[in-house]
């Protein structure tokens, strides 16, 4: 997921425009900034890119999820369905607003299985957060169909799938709201940063006010005289992040195209491995190609291949062994280890025994994540790197 690979003069030039005027905040200081509004410009460009009416820059991906949940009025007493395979922040955001995450299984796309939503429902279910993991979209249309039938809200966690599409339409634009991250390992990066997108003006306004201490933004008023409709907090994006984001966004099509070409070449090399299967894709043309996943018949074969390939230059992740992306590996969540337990929903009587995760509740995830290897696809690759991978595949295949 390497926007970091292409940081260069374009980002520097955008940052310099900010530095020359010295206004590092997105609001106020109109005379000094002399028309330079990088976060605002980045938001406008991002909304056009996503095909949504609105985009709101925020401090990071985690706060984009939290800000969206606040705007959607998800809070204490609510349950939110989340997939077993995601970065820990998806769950943390639900807890941050006082709601309870309810774990759902994944399907062959490695994303939330729409057919497993039903069994996770309770009268308290308010929303679903499908996550487009590792660069490729979930079955989002079907998820939304199920959600609409049950009058549930949908917030897409598109942190790992910026630029991904289904039938040409961008992920993040299907649900009621979408959330993005621009942290340092994402497809485009601003160091730290995030974005909330939506077509709904009132959701946008709630998010906009919430993320800036309740400010009702009104360009005709000085900032100190703006009204406050609701209590918020500070999840603002800074101008330097906005500047970098603008330059990165201009490069995103090139980033994704390069990854797709590189992924196709790596995939051709991996086809030689006997007995593997590739990840299911809802729309192969909409894959951002940040990762290539290949599945072995069992854990033993995957592990043997991984250990044999790594010293020869093919590094892979087996997510069942990874500490941050599989719910059953989060001992702090499993044991409800919180800073202030009163703030979290675990102890609430209405949720008695609702927070529970065992392998038998998520059989598909528990099986497939234990025998699938993921390898990251770089933007820039040389012929020597492909040859190295070919060699690693040959050597590791010999131990299967
Ligand atoms: C990175 C990520 C986040 C959080 O983004 P940050 O910018 O790191 O806070 C949320 N969800 C997923 C799926 C992610 O990969």
Describe the protein.
- This protein is of the alpha/beta class and 400 residues long.
- 34% of the residues lie in helices and 12% in strands.
- The chain has twelve helices and twelve strands.
- It has helices spanning 9-21, 30-33, 38-50, 61-71, 89-96, 140-149, 201-210, 239-270, 299-309, 331-334, 363-368, 383-397, and strands at 54-58, 79-83, 100-104, 125-128, 153-157, 165-166, 169-170, 177-181, 194-198, 277-278, 291-295, 372-376.
- The strands form three sheets. The protein has a seven-stranded mixed beta sheet with strand order 1-9-8-5-4-2-3, with helices on both faces. Strands 10-11-12 form a three-stranded antiparallel beta sheet. It has a two-stranded antiparallel sheet with strand order 6-7.
- It starts with 8 loop residues before the first helix and ends with a helix.
- Pyridoxal-5'-phosphate is lined by residues 60-62, 86-87, 89-90, 131, 157, 159-160, 181, 183, 194.
């Amino acid at each position: 997921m390497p926007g970091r690979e292409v940081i260069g003069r374009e980002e520097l030039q955008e940052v310099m425009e900010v530095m020359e005027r010295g206004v590092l905040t997105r609001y106020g200081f109109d005379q000094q900034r002399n028309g330079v509004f990088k976060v605002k410009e980045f938001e406008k460009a991002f909304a056009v890119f996503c095909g949504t009416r609105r985009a709101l820059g925020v401090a990071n991906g985690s706060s984009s999820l939290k800000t969206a949940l606040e705007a959607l009025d998800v809070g204490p007493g609510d349950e939110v369905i989340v997939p077993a395979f995601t970065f820990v922040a998806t769950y943390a955001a639900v807890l941050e607003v006082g709601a309870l995450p309810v774990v759902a299984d994944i399907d062959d796309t490695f994303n939330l299985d729409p057919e497993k939503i039903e069994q996770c429902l309770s009268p308290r279910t308010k929303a679903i957060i499908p996550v487009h993991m590792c660069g490729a979209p979930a079955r989002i249309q079907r998820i939304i169909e199920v959600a609409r039938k049950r009058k549930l809200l949908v917030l897409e966690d598109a942190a790992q799938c910026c630029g991904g599409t289904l039938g040409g339409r961008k992920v993040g634009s299907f649900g009621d709201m979408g959330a993005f991250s621009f942290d340092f390992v994402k497809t485009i990066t601003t160091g730290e940063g995030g974005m909330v997108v939506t077509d709904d003006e009132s959701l946008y306004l709630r998010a906009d006010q919430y993320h800036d201490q309740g400010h009702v933004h009104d360009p005709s008023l000085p900032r100190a005289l703006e009204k406050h409709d609701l209590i918020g907090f500070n999840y603002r994006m800074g101008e330097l992040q906005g500047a970098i984001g603008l330059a990165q966004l201009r490069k995103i099509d090139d980033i994704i195209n390069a990854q797709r070409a590189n992924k196709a070449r790596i995939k051709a090399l991996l086809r030689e491995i006997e007995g593997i299967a590739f990840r299911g894709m809802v729309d192969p043309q909409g894959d951002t190609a940040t990762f290539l996943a290949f599945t072995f018949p069992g854990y033993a074969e995957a592990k043997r291949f991984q250990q044999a390939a790594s010293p020869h230059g093919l590094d892979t992740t087996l997510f069942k062994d990874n500490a941050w992306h599989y719910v059953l590996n989060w001992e702090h969540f499993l044991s409800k280890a919180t800073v202030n337990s009163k703030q979290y929903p675990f102890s609430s009587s209405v949720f008695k025994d609702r927070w529970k995760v065992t392998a038998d509740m998520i059989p598909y995830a528990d099986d497939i994540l234990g025998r699938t290897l993921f390898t990251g696809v770089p933007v820039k690759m040389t012929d020597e790197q492909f040859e190295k991978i070919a060699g690693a595949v040959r050597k590791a295949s010999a131990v299967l």
